[in-house]
Design goal:
CATH architecture of the largest domain: 3-Layer(aba) Sandwich
Radius of gyration: 21 Å
Number of domains: 2
Number of helices: 12
Distance between the termini: 13 Å
Strand content: 15-25%
Helix content: 25-40%
Order of helices and strands: HEEEHHEEEHHEHEHEEEHEHHHH
Largest sheet: 10 strands, mixed
Shape: globular
Oligomer: single chain
CATH superfamily of the largest domain: Alpha/Beta hydrolase fold, catalytic domain
Length: 354
């Protein structure tokens, strides 16, 4: 009997691990399309006073549909160099080109910001020392102040930007993900939409406290999209996947406008990049292009207007159902039950028959 149980255990574990490939693929809305106007991307360097002594690279994306008269929505991306790269995991400017062209998100200007570095201080690799963790992982209003008083006014010198929180979103991955949430949490009057990929809601600089803080604080007017994978990091700072699950539970407890997509990926941009088009559709649903124009995309209640959305190989955002989305297994015709997913289960299962 013990041999049979052990054999069954091994088979189940092997089957579970076989799907943990992190092999998500980009869909058509993440690729350049013929006939779709390509927005302009310009780079500038910024020397900050709020983060004294730091300089950074920034990029501004302007879609062809921007007319210079109507204030455009704003989407800010942390680790901006990676997000704006046309060959990276996210390819955000290509996604925005395609979705704006199809009227599935409002006309918006993208601001892509790299973390600051100290040009006069060198790290162990003889490169300028990074200020990334301090800027991104710290639970304070300082980064929101940096955006409000430095970056947004600088970009606003050349382009007309929406000034209301409903017309502004912010995105980031890993520490950039918790940074995006911190900005909206500290200043919901500035940003109302948060997109977090593999967010570091762990104890790097106290981010693991957020679920408890959220539960005890009056609900704020913030819309949140979370993505993570069951094979994300697990180290002395915490377990990234469990940290995101705790955030999900806290948001649900308080009744936030929330969408989550859980997969089996690692600490990479593959899954987040694959679902970025659908993430952007959900995040910006029901948002008017201006205060005087009707909304684009799905309405406030999530009911889709008549929009031609091509079928993609990549997963759509998770519905409100509790089961997470695992697109690769589903496409193969053999969806893996939730209790089989992740390393936590695998370890418990092996110990059960020792």
């Amino acid at each position: 009997m013990n041999r049979l149980a052990t054999t069954i255990t091994i088979v189940l574990v092997v089957a579970a691990m076989a799907h943990a490939k992190d092999d998500y693929e980009l869909g058509p809305d993440s690729k350049e399309r013929a006939g779709v106007p390509k927005g302009d991307v310009t780079m500038f360097k910024w020397e900050s006073k709020i983060f004294a002594g730091t300089t950074r690279d920034c990029w501004v994306y302007v879609p062809k549909q921007y007319d210079g008269k109507t204030p455009a929505c704003v989407m800010v991306f942390q680790d901006g160099g990676g997000y704006q790269s046309p060959k990276g995991s996210y390819r955000a400017t290509i996604v925005m080109d395609n979705l704006i062209h199809k009227n599935e998100i409002p006309v918006m200007i993208g601001i892509f910001i790299n973390p600051g570095v100290f040009a006069d201080k060198l790290d162990a690799k003889k490169k300028p020392a990074s200020n990334r963790s301090f800027e991104y992982d710290t639970l304070s209003p300082q980064y929101a102040e940096f955006l409000e008083k430095e970056i947004l006014p600088e970009v606003g010198k050349k382009y007309k930007l929406r000034q209301d929180a409903a017309g502004r979103g912010i995105c980031g991955a890993s520490s950039g993900g918790i940074c995006a949430f911190t900005v909206a949490w500290e200043r919901p009057d500035l940003f109302s939409k948060v997109l977090s990929h593999i967010g570091s809601f762990t104890n790097i600089r106290g981010g693991d406290r957020y679920p408890g803080i959220i539960r005890k604080t009056p609900k704020k007017d913030i819309r949140v999209f979370l993505q993570d994978g069951s094979n994300d990091l697990d180290n002395a700072a915490g377990n990234w996947y469990l940290g995101n699950l705790q955030m999900e539970a806290a948001f649900k407890f308080k009744g936030y406008d929330l969408k989550t997509v859980w997969g089996d990926g690692k600490h990479t941009g593959k899954h987040g990049g694959a679902i970025l088009p659908d993430s952007m559709r959900w995040l910006w649903r029901g948002t008017p292009a201006s205060a005087t124009t009707p909304p684009v995309g799905p309405d406030k209640d999530g009911k889709s207007k008549k929009i031609d959305v091509p079928k993609e190989k990549t997963p759509a955002p998770a519905t409100d159902a509790p089961a997470p989305t695992l697109p690769q297994a589903a496409e193969a015709g053999s969806p893996r039950p939730r209790f089989l997913r992740g390393r936590l289960f695998q370890g418990r299962l092996l110990r059960l028959f020792r």
